[in-house]
Amino acid sequence: MSRPLKRALLEIRGNRFLNAITVATIALAILISSAFGLFFVNANRLMTLWQQGVRVMVYLQPQVAEDAVNDLRDRLETLPAVGKAVFISREAGLARLREQLQHQRSLIANLKTNPLPHAFEVQLRPEIRDWAAVAQLADAIQKLPGVDEVEYGQGWLERLAAILRLFKLTGLGMCGLFFLATVLIVANTTRLVLYGRREEIEIMRLVGASEGFIRTPLYLEGMLQGLMGAAAGLAGLLAGHLYLSAQIAPGLLPGRFEVRFFSPALAAAILGASMLAGWLGSYLSLRQQLKT
Fold first, then answer.
1. Residues of the chain with CATH 3.30.70.3040
2. What gap in Å lies between CA 51 and CA 185, rounded to an integer?
3. Pairing state of beta strands 147-151 and 119-124?
4. Beta-carbon neighbour count of residue 186 at 10 Å?
5. E strand map for the chain
6. What integer pLDDT is reported at residue 231 of this predicted model?
7. Class of residue 176 by CB neighbours under 10 A (exposed 0-12, middle 13-18, buried 19+)
8. Residue 52 backbone dihedrals phi, psi, to 5 degrees
9. Rounded to the nearest 10 degrees, how much is the dihedral formed by the CA atoms of 167, 168, 170, 175?
10. Dihedral sign computed on CA atoms, order 204, 210, 213, 218
């Protein structure tokens, strides 16, 4: 172990209380900002999963002829974003509705005529993952002859996407604020350490110690504070993630969806960003204090 790192560890041990408060504050900042990031990561994956399961329902006009239906199927399947178009007759649609409402049969028990139109269930190609592309496809289908209405749940999906965009911007803003807070916390801690060691630093300068010899352990101390705080924050977030994942009912989320934690690369990036904030806090404090 290099001498500057040993000196940094000795300084952390010598100022346990001050460093413990600094690490705990950084851990809380990392915990809150990472919780926002983890929510957004999983919400974005859930939106992607929902989008992969989107079916565009194309309802036909009542007077459409059988030949027009076949022609419309051919036109639908030639569209670039369409994988398959499945025709659903009025009778098949009513049978499906009865099956879906088998526990509320009274809602359709008194129907004398079939109110449903003929329809196509359009399945998208797997590579279509952009909501704008789905909306563009719906507009193109709406212009085809014989089409009465196109439905793909655009209302609530667009509102949900807008909420997620707002949540993302809020999370990014909070990450920026917490990064700045970490820098200021480490800077204040370093300033207090320098104040307590001012006579020692003066003696080291008198005996010819270089600025690098004085500064390097303090830089490492700030980076270690950032690393320990981020590790503690991520550990707390992981514990909360494991607890909440165990409490989620099996049928609450889609079958293929699993709530995940940060990938190793993303967790390492969070640790690195916290260490950078610790170094930057030490740098700013040293730049100001050692001049005097």
1. 55-152
2. 43
3. unpaired
4. 29
5. 55-60, 82-88, 119-124, 147-151
6. 94
7. exposed
8. -65, -25
9. 140
10. positive
Residues 180, 176: Cα–Cα separation, whole Å: 6
Burial 54-75 (b: 16+ CB within 10 A, else e): bebbbbbeeebeeeeeeebbeb
Token pair for residue 221? 């101390």
**Radius of gyration of the CA atoms of the chain, in A:** 31
And the tokens for 232? 């503690």
- Smallest CA-to-CA distance from 249 within 240, 259, 239 is with 259
Fold of 55-152: Alpha-Beta Plaits (3.30.70)
Tokens at residue 68, please? 């027009």
Rounded Cα distance, 250 and 260, in Å: 15
The tens place of each residue's pLDDT in the chain, 292 residues long, gives: 577 777 777 777 777 787 888 888 889 888 888 888 888 888 777 776 666 666 788 888 877 777 788 888 888 888 888 878 888 887 777 777 677 666 666 556 566 666 678 888 888 877 666 667 777 888 888 888 888 888 877 666 677 777 777 877 887 887 788 888 888 888 887 777 777 667 766 777 777 767 677 778 888 888 888 899 999 999 999 998 888 877 765 555 555 567 788 889 989 999 998 899 888 888 888 776 656 5
Amino acid at 246: A
Q: How many helices (H) and strands (E) does the chain have?
A: 9, 4
Distance (Å, rounded) from C-alpha 291 to C-alpha 201? 12
